[in-house]
Automatic annotation (TrEMBL):
Protein name from the UniProt record: Diguanylate cyclase
Origin organism lineage: Bacteria, Bacillati, Actinomycetota, Actinomycetes, Kitasatosporales
SMART domains attached to this UniProt entry: GAF, PAC, PAS
Keyword Coiled coil: yes
Naturally occurring in which organism (per UniProt): Streptomyces pristinaespiralis
Keyword annotations of the record: Coiled coil
PANTHER family linked to this entry: BIOFILM ARCHITECTURE MAINTENANCE PROTEIN MBAA (PTHR44757:SF2), DIGUANYLATE CYCLASE DGCP (PTHR44757)
Length: 383
């Protein structure tokens, strides 16, 4: 009779397995996926308790989900077992394909190790395949590929029929563990992608804020600012100029994009401009205005990279120094005449000119001292 019912048992198990595997793919987050894995064991594979132990980055395993007992879930969820203890468990007992079964006759040595566990005492089995409360059955979950990277371990307890699973039950649990590993890997991938997207969005927001700050500082700077190309056939061509520079040179921004500073510089200052380095270079030159006149400016260069490996641009700060240069030009003739005057006119004879004044001062000082001496030495009258 049992042989005749085996196909029906397999068919019912396959239907249940299909349903719980389908549910694995409906979970959205990693936490939901882990809980769905545990719930599927209880709902579809005929066990009363199921626990999902997930490998952490440090190699230890944490109880990430539990199903079947609220008391057991509150007791062990979140607790951690060392990888050494788990490796010991996965090498003990009997190998049922990828599964690992540790009967109560061997598992008593594991009661005191650091792996979180939930078990109850019970009588000795009455028949050979009866399940004992201290029997342990583990289904390792490995990442897809040939590396056999351990993702976690599913542990089950208390089969509803009270018996150890037969070949078909073992195969069903092994198939479920394989599908659970795929679902967990996909959930981790989605979680990593979501974190990466959030991080990328934050970086883009910061970049947009930085670009807006730079634009505001560039456009509304009180002195001239310009961005020019670096390298290539268009080296030095002005790409962008702010309003202050356009007003200084009397040229609209659209017209400025047709020039480079080499096109606008005074012919006598071309050499100075060419000798100015791109990074940190400074120069005082004359730039041509639209009306044909020239204005003295101070240039300061710096190199700006568009991206980590992208094109670089030349940022130039242009300061109007026309008034200072005009004042310097006005003082230049005076300084030149002073440098060529005789030494006597530049101040060498000044001590001789002051001699009469100093003699008169000494005479006044001597007369004052004599008056004080006479007052001190005059006779005093009795009171």
């Amino acid at each position: 009779m049992e042989t005749e019912s085996e196909p029906y048992v397999r068919l019912a198990t396959l239907r249940q397995l299909h349903k719980v595997v389908t549910d694995l793919n409906t979970a959205r987050s990693l936490a939901d996926t882990l809980q769905t894995v545990a719930d599927g064991i209880v709902a579809g594979l005929g066990y009363e308790l199921a626990c999902v132990n997930l490998v952490r980055p440090d190699g230890d395993l944490v109880v990430a989900a539990f199903a079947g007992s609220a008391a057991a879930e509150a007791l062990i969820t979140g607790r951690v077992g060392s990888r050494t203890s788990w490796d010991r468990r996965l090498s003990m007992g009997e190998a049922w394909g990828e599964l690992r079964f540790i009967p109560h006759t061997e598992g008593w040595v594991l009661i005191e190790d650091d792996v979180p566990q939930w078990h109850t005492d019970g009588p000795e089995p009455r028949f050979e395949d009866e399940w004992h409360p201290q029997d342990r059955l583990y289904a390792p979950m490995y990442a897809s590929g040939g590396g056999r990277e351990l993702l976690g371990v599913i542990s089950v307890d208390r089969p509803r029929n009270g018996r150890r699973p037969g070949p078909w039950g073992q195969e069903a649990l092994q198939m479920y563990a394989s599908q659970a590993a795929i679902a967990i890997s996909n959930a981790r991938l989605r979680a990593n992608m979501q974190r990466a997207l959030v991080r990328l969005e934050r970086e883009q927001q910061a970049l947009r804020a930085s670009e807006e700050s730079f634009r505001q500082a560039f456009e509304y700077a009180p002195s001239g600012m310009a961005i020019a190309e670096m390298g290539g056939d268009q080296h030095g061509r002005l790409l962008r100029t702010n309003d202050a520079l356009c007003r200084l040179l009397g040229r609209p921004a659209s017209a400025m994009r047709r020039y480079s500073f080499a096109d606008l510089v005074h012919p006598e200052d071309v050499g100075t401009l060419l000798r100015t380095s791109a990074e940190g270079g400074r120069a005082e030159i004359r730039l041509g205005r639209r009306d044909g006149s020239y204005v003295w400016v101070s240039l300061r260069n710096s190199v700006v990279a568009d991206t980590a490996d992208g094109p670089r641009f030349l940022l130039t700060h242009v300061e109007d120094i026309e008034d200072r240069k005009r004042h310097e030009l006005q003082l230049a003739p005076r300084l030149a005449r002073r440098a060529h005057r005789p030494a006597q006119q530049r101040g060498t004879a000044r001590p001789a000119q002051l001699a009469p004044v100093r003699a008169a001062a000494r005479g006044l000082r001597d007369r004052h001292r004599g008056a004080r001496r006479r007052v001190r030495d005059r006779p005093r009258f009795p009171q």
